[in-house]
Automatic annotation (TrEMBL):
Origin organism lineage: Eukaryota, Metazoa, Chordata, Craniata, Vertebrata
FERM domain span: 2-282
Top-level taxon of origin: Eukaryota
Keywords, in A-Z order: Guanine-nucleotide releasing factor, Repeat
One Pfam family linked to the record: FERM_C
Molecular function via GO: cytoskeletal protein binding; guanyl-nucleotide exchange factor activity
Chain positions covered by the region annotation Disordered: 332-351
InterPro entries, per database record: Band_41_domain, Ez/rad/moesin-like, FA, FARP1/FARP2/FRMD7_FERM_C, FERM/acyl-CoA-bd_prot_sf, FERM_2, FERM_central, FERM_CS
UniProt-listed CDD domains: FERM_B-lobe, FERM_C_FARP1-like, FERM_F1_FRMD7
Organism whose genome encodes this protein: Acanthisitta chloris
Protein name per its UniProtKB record: FERM domain-containing protein 7
GO biological process: regulation of neuron projection development
Length: 351
């Protein structure tokens, strides 16, 4: 048996026991069951590969073929697919987990934005975690909790916005925070360093709409899925082949060079999954789709697509399971909102 450590978005950790021959899906399903998470396809488990790259655990491949020493690896439960409109997230727990991801990205500088937007996002986090504005409580909390790299310059602005949120519940604060986050230029974007055909340093990223080319945090080109005929990789070169009507205006195939073959292949796989999740009506069958398949690869997306998730949500009345949020003071007791087991302390027996 394998004893595998998973870290959740609130930084709590838990050991899960799976069979030696278990595929990635086995561990992922256990983590989702632990959270009572219904909309699980938006998430994934990330880990540091032997080559030092952050990669997603593949659902259909045995864990021992992906990780050399599984018991020594920390798997991080994270948001994998960012919908263009978080309003499509039906479950309060799902929105809460997205909020924790935004919180983590802000703290680590992975979600660059204006001071105004940063202060507004943190103010919604304070409303969720502390309750209504209280100047002394806010000051003490901000002095001991780091939400932003440059937080000390924004404390007054954060408190100014927090004062406006009086009466909002944690669930309402999540909705408002996600509405602010989705409008940010870098929302849901994970840059991957590369260089173009002229050797210029750029970043590649994949989103619901297609593949982006960025210089720093500025988008300089977008290749929508409708423009792309095929994505592939050859050694450490990532190739975008465009449809004929598009390539008449530029080169037929665009080539980008990444740090290594492993880095390139990992990004290609993320593109395959993003395309399937956001563009296909159902999970691809065993035979991979030609559009995004590199010759010889059997890799494919596994799970419900966003369309299936939304259709399921419309047809089925999902029963929200109780979960406990992480709060910092007892001032919230009278309107405590339930969040996740040890994130997530299970409260089902108390209800």
């Amino acid at each position: 048996m394998l004893h595998l450590k998973v870290q959740f978005l609130d930084d709590s950790q838990k050991i899960f026991v799976v069979d030696q021959k278990s595929c990635g899906k086995g561990l992922f399903n256990l983590t989702c069951s632990h959270l009572n998470l219904a909309e699980k396809e938006y998430f994934g488990l990330e880990f540091r590969s032997q080559a030092g790259n952050q990669v997603w655990l593949e659902p259909l491949k045995p864990i021992t073929k992906q990780v050399k020493n599984p018991k020594e690896v920390l798997f991080k439960f994270m948001v994998k697919f960012f919908p263009v409109d978080p309003g499509h997230l039906r479950e309060e727990l799902t929105r809460y987990l997205f909020t924790l991801q935004i919180k983590k990205d802000l703290a680590h500088g992975r979600l660059p934005c204006s001071d105004k937007s940063a202060a507004l996002l943190v103010s919604h986090l304070l409303q969720s975690e502390l309750g209504d504005f209280h100047e002394k409580t806010d000051q003490q909390h901000l002095a001991t909790h780091r939400y932003l790299p440059n937080q000390e310059y924004l404390d007054n602005k954060i408190m100014h916005y927090h004062r406006r949120h009086s009466g909002k519940t944690p669930a309402e604060s999540d909705v408002q925070l996600l509405d602010v986050a989705r409008k940010l230029e870098m929302y849901g974007i994970r840059p991957h360093p590369a260089s173009d055909g002229e050797g210029t340093q750029i970043n590649l990223a994949v989103t619901h709409m297609g593949v982006l080319v960025l210089r720093g945090n500025t988008k300089i080109n977008t290749f929508n899925w409708s423009k792309i005929r095929k994505l592939s990789f050859k050694r450490k070169h990532f190739l975008i082949k465009l449809h004929a009507n598009i390539s008449a205006l530029c080169k037929d195939t665009l080539e980008f060079t990444m740090a290594s073959r492993d880095t390139c292949k990992a990004f290609w796989k993320t593109c395959v999954e993003y395309h399937a999740f956001f563009r296909l009506s159902e999970e691809p069958k065993s035979k991979p789709k030609a559009l995004l398949c590199s010759k010889g690869s059997s890799f494919r997306y596994s799970g419900r697509t966003q369309r299936q998730l939304l259709e399921h949500g419309r047809k089925a009345k999902m029963k929200s399971l109780p979960f406990e949020r992480k709060h910092y003071t007892s001032r919230y007791d009278e309107r405590q909102c339930r969040s996740s087991p040890d994130l997530l302390t299970d409260v089902s027996k108390q209800v």
